[in-house]
Write a structure and sequence with these properties.
The complex is a heterodimer.
Chain A lengths: L2 E4 L2 E2 L2 E2 L1 H17 L3 E7 L5 H5 L8 E6 L5 H15 L3 E4 L3 H14 L2 E6 L1 E5 L2 E8 L4 E7 L4 E5 L15 E5 L10 E8 L12 E5 L8 H12 L2 E4 L1 H5 L20 E5 L5 H7 L4 E6 L12 E4 L2 H16 L1
Parallel strand pairs in A: 1-4, 1-6, 4-5, 5-12, 6-11, 7-11, 14-15, 14-16, 16-17, 17-18
Antiparallel strand pairs in A: 2-3, 8-9, 9-10
Chain B lengths: L1 E5 L2 E3 L7 E2 L4 E2 L4 E4 L1 H16 L6 E7 L5 H9 L4 E5 L9 H13 L5 E5 L10 H9 L3 E11 L2 E8 L2 E8 L2 E5 L11 H7 L4 E4 L12 H4 L2 E7 L8 E4 L3 H14 L5
Parallel strand pairs in B: 1-6, 1-8, 6-7, 7-13, 8-12, 9-12
Antiparallel strand pairs in B: 2-5, 3-4, 9-10, 10-11
Helix pairs in contact in B: 2-5, 3-4
Classes of the chains: A alpha/beta, B alpha/beta.
């Protein structure tokens, strides 16, 4: 039972989440007694040498397709061909945005079953079963597949990178004719950084702000609290997309993953896309006026109240305490 | 240009959601709201119409779901859609993503839209996938999680946040675009629009009407099966403070932080 994964790359480096998926695919393929294949799609920066390094994570064979980077549909074309030509039984993706799009495209193209937001995969009765948390993580369903292939889209950080192989994988080129519709989207600009460059990954203390701050100026309050605590300010995707805070400070899906000693969330509801980026924090404190906010389900200290009243007083109290 | 907006009825946020242990499906008995992400898709359609960059002849709300889902269509029409289409059939019950995407693609095909818009996720299933499934069936270019759409020379210029920052992508029409909630602030429907919504054209379609092959939908057309439903690993519940006296609340937070040596 062979497993195919997709590895995203950018500027000559593979994505960490993708490498996690490659490692997981290799582990499962070994258990099922099959090949661990990886598809890479891009231009000349995908050198033999770079592709072969995927062997370090347990890949046996790398299928390289030449097509535009950063868009899902050309990858669907390449993967559909590799799966049909080589009989892969499963396709596995890490937790990125493209993984969702490619996996979904393959579902349609191959009439295949798909499970997303998967947090674990197990080999069972000669096949794979995907574990997927649902309903704000209040239940976990075990999903099996009818027919083949089965498509598994992981949640961000679900799969850890693990060096397992001898360091080199065989690299083969895939000659694929792109579908007409796959050529109708064109990347104009990729990877634009918006806002200042800030480092939130090394901080021991983070004060994170979300939509509940009400307005961009709400971040001043967070900055003062962070200063008092000796920490740094982070943000949710909603407020970054709205232009309230720099992209470099964003936690969660398509942002950073952090695990500080203290994570203080102000006005953050705690959607799954945010949770996956910060749930490993040692101490989680949440301030939110909505007592039903999901963040209270996974915070160590939850404060139900108006952050505009609480945060400034908390800042003063901490300053006084620290002298 | 004709825009179709895919919408969905989801459980009210205040209703506790649960799985039915017999059928292993989501218990949908408490459903009654339009998926909040879909309101952004309708607003995006309205802004394209009002933006003047292209003539929009018609905005059509499309849903698939049980009888009761007409409420989501009424809401969509009150927010600006001109008419709506309801794909409903007992044969569709229990469809997974693969089967749902196929069925939606078939009903959309019968409308021949130039642009399909939808919300990037639904409040219940949390999946970002349906747009890309539908696009592949329709053989249209597609982009998900879009936060800005401009119409330029018959093409769309879209922006979104991806793995390495913000991407700007040009997409030729016809296309399928799913939008994020940062794209706009949906307007509130006027009382007149709410009252008028029930009078706008609503077409019901069965699977046979739009050429859906019966064995590709419902439980028999689904390619995944739920084997088990388990509780999550137990997690110790955190402390909760209700803020009544803010000075007292702050004192409690400070001592909590101090106990954990976080104010060193």
């Amino acid at each position: 039972m062979s497993i195919l994964t997709y590895a995203l790359h950018y500027e000559g480096e593979f994505n960490k989440n993708s490498l996690g998926a490659v490692s997981e695919g290799a582990r499962l393929a070994k258990e099922l007694g099959g090949e661990a294949g990886v598809v890479v799609v891009g231009g000349d920066d995908l050198t033999d040498k770079l592709c072969a390094t995927l062997g370090k994570y347990g890949a046996n064979k790398v299928y390289r397709g030449k097509a535009p980077e950063g868009l899902a549909q050309p990858v669907v074309d390449v993967m559909a061909k590799v799966i049909s030509d080589n009989g892969f039984k499963y396709a596995l993706f890490g937790g990125g945005l493209l993984g969702f799009e490619i996996g979904a495209g393959l579902t349609a193209r191959l009439g295949a079953g798909v499970t997303m937001e998967v947090t674990a995969v197990k080999a069972q009765d000669g096949g794979l079963v995907a574990e997927r948390p649902i309903l704000q993580d209040s239940a976990i369903v075990d999903v099996g597949y009818v027919g083949e292939p089965g498509i598994i889209i992981g949640r961000l950080n679900a799969f850890d990178m693990a060096e397992a192989g001898d360091g080199t994988a065989e690299v083969v080129d895939v000659d694929v004719q792109l579908e007409d519709h796959s050529t109708k989207a064109t990347m104009v600009q990729r990877g634009e950084q918006r806002g200042a460059d800030v480092n939130i990954e090394d901080a021991d203390i983070l004060v994170a702000g979300g939509r509940g701050l009400g307005k961009p100026e709400g971040f001043e309050m967070c900055e003062q609290l962070a200063d008092a605590l000796g920490g740094v300010v982070a943000a949710t995707r909603a407020v970054v997309d709205a232009g309230w805070y720099p992209y470099a400070a964003q936690i969660g899906q398509t942002g950073k993953t952090v695990a500080p000693k203290l994570y203080l969330a102000a006005g953050i509801s705690g959607a799954i896309q945010h949770k996956v980026g910060m749930q490993s924090s040692e101490n989680i404190v949440a301030i939110n006026k909505d007592q039903n906010a999901p963040i209270f389900e996974f915070s160590d200290l939850g404060v139900v109240g108006d952050l505009n009243k609480i945060v400034p007083k908390l800042t003063e109290a901490i300053k006084a305490k620290k002298g | 240009m004709k825009i179709c907006v895919l919408v969905k009825e989801v459980p009210d946020a205040a209703v506790e959601k649960r799985m039915d242990s017999g059928s292993k499906r989501l218990d949908r008995s408490g459903e009654r709201n339009l998926n909040p992400f879909d309101t952004h898709a309708i607003e995006a359609a309205m802004q394209i119409r009002e933006g003047g960059g292209v003539d929009v002849d018609e905005i059509v709300a499309v849903t698939m779901g049980p009888e009761s889902a007409f409420r989501a269509l009424h809401k969509a029409v009150s927010l600006g859609a001109d008419r709506s289409v309801h794909l409903t059939d007992d044969a569709l019950a229990g469809s997974d993503v693969c089967a749902t995407g196929y069925a939606l693609a078939k009903v959309l095909e019968s409308e021949s839209p130039d642009l399909v818009l939808l919300g990037q996720q639904s409040d219940d299933g949390e999946c970002y996938t349906i747009g890309a499934v539908v696009a592949d069936h329709l053989k249209m270019p597609s982009l998900t999680q879009v936060i800005k759409i401009g119409v330029e020379g018959g093409k769309l210029r879209c922006e979104r946040q991806a793995e390495y920052g913000y991407d700007t992508v040009d997409v030729e029409l016809p296309a399928v675009i799913s939008v994020g909630d940062a794209i706009n602030e949906p307007r509130y429907p006027s009382l007149k629009a709410i009252m008028g919504a029930k009078k706008k054209q609503l077409d019901k379609r069965s699977t046979g009407d739009v050429g859906i092959e019966a064995d590709r939908v419902g439980e028999q057309g689904s390619r995944t099966s739920v084997i088990a439903i388990n509780p999550p690993p137990p997690k110790q519940a955190g402390e909760i403070i209700e803020d009544e006296d803010t000075n007292e609340t702050v004192e409690k937070i400070v001592s909590w932080l101090e106990e954990r040596k976080l104010l060193a």
